[in-house]
Amino acid sequence: MNAESDERKVAATVVPDSATGDVTAPAEQPLGSRAPEFVKARRTLHLSWQVGVFIIGLAVVVAGVIMLPLPGPGWLVIFGGMAIWATEFVWAQLVLRWTKRKVTEAAQRALDPKVRRRNIILTSIGLVIVAVLLAIYVWKFGIVMPWKIDE
Fold first, then answer.
1. How many Å is the Cα radius of gyration of the chain?
2. Which of 62, 108, 107, 110 is nearest to 84 (CA)?
3. pLDDT tens digits for 68-119?
4. Cα separation of 112 and 96, whole Å?
5. Torsion angle, alpha carbons of 109, 120, 123, 73, to 10
6. At the N or C end, where does the chain have fewer CB atoms within 10 A?
């Protein structure tokens, strides 16, 4: 088990910026279990540790999924459960790294002035369309509260 996880570990690398030579990306932690060494040294203890981490992470993820339609920070809790799983499982670490990378790319794209200008224009057009439709509805039917309907 340890030999397999040792083969999958990725060396922490720092990527220099090509233009300036400055370091832009922090070093990533190596893949694998972050359990204490005395836990990893005993196979049964490590297996029970992994089962415990999986159950706790599963409970947090399920709570996040329940919060999606209900009030609460559903996605934040789901990512928290993934982070709990990532302390022990390589697949969760890879999913979390991919998610962080995609969120960072999306944030960079959203900060692009052209994209921001386009989003502001589209939002303004949408609001104007909604206001016009609402005005047409009020002009045609008027504002009648449900408790004042004459039968």
1. 25
2. 62
3. 998 888 889 998 998 899 888 888 889 888 988 998 998 888 888 888 899 8
4. 25
5. 50
6. C
